[in-house]
């Protein structure tokens, strides 16, 4: 009896302690429910604290003819004087003979979060009688920033944080003609959309009636579709169904009809940003007056990180592959 007793006991299932059961369930592929507080959510707080300490970089470029309100629009976006222009420019400064690029860098802080903002203006673009190849200096500048980042990245002993001067977004200002896009607009966006995120906007939209604005937007969308120009947000890069639904709604509104103003006015007892006219005050942040809030949400509140991700993972990656292939096959 004493010899058979252990064998009989071995036929019964072994009692598993609660601790062992928890480990077994947690390590199984299907076991995603935790039986107690672990603290994984604290990673978000760690990331937030680190970002608030180090800050982040955001580089934006504005392109368009003179007099379309590019500097005013940038100041309106960030509610500060981040884009400066000469108060009394000379005759030579008003219309540069060639396209020049001016970059201004500021550090903006809001609620403890620091952002190093670089605004690149392109005076002289489209202001000449002959605008042939006026986009070449802009393409050269964008590629130079990719090259600068690549040289830092391939160093044997590289910096812990590589300075990012790459252009994350290019806002292209379309003149409010009410007709079709000009050949200059089409050629610029066709070339630039391959190397940078291009966001077209209709400048000074208060010069158009609501009917003219809707018709002009429809014509621009048809032009972009007929010429296979992919502006931001690109449909090819939508992976998540929720992101695709949001971006579809944004693509229906592009190009945004915007009005810029960096002066405050009193409206119904409130101080609002707007432009004063004979007929009243155009409130910049009122969706019923213009689509500036949609542009601000796209560039800052909802898609800022996505702009940086696509710049790094798509545009910069294609430039890096091309440059490394050239160095391997001289």
UniProtKB/TrEMBL annotation:
Q: What species does this protein belong to?
A: Brachypteracias leptosomus
Please list the GO terms describing molecular function. GTP binding
Q: Which residues form the Septin-type G domain?
A: 54-326
Cellular component aspect of the GO annotation: cytoskeleton
Question: Keyword Cytoplasm: yes or no?
Answer: yes
Q: Which UniProt keywords apply?
A: Cell cycle, Cell division, Cytoplasm, Cytoskeleton, GTP-binding, Nucleotide-binding
Q: Report the subcellular localization.
A: Cytoplasm, Cytoskeleton
Q: Which Pfam families match?
A: Septin
- What InterPro entries does the entry give? G_SEPTIN_dom (IPR030379), P-loop_NTPase (IPR027417), Septin (IPR016491)
Keyword Chloroplast found: no
Family label: Belongs to the TRAFAC class TrmE-Era-EngA-EngB-Septin-like GTPase superfamily. Septin GTPase family.
Protein's name according to its UniProt entry:
SEP12 protein
Q: Provide a GO biological process annotation.
A: cell division
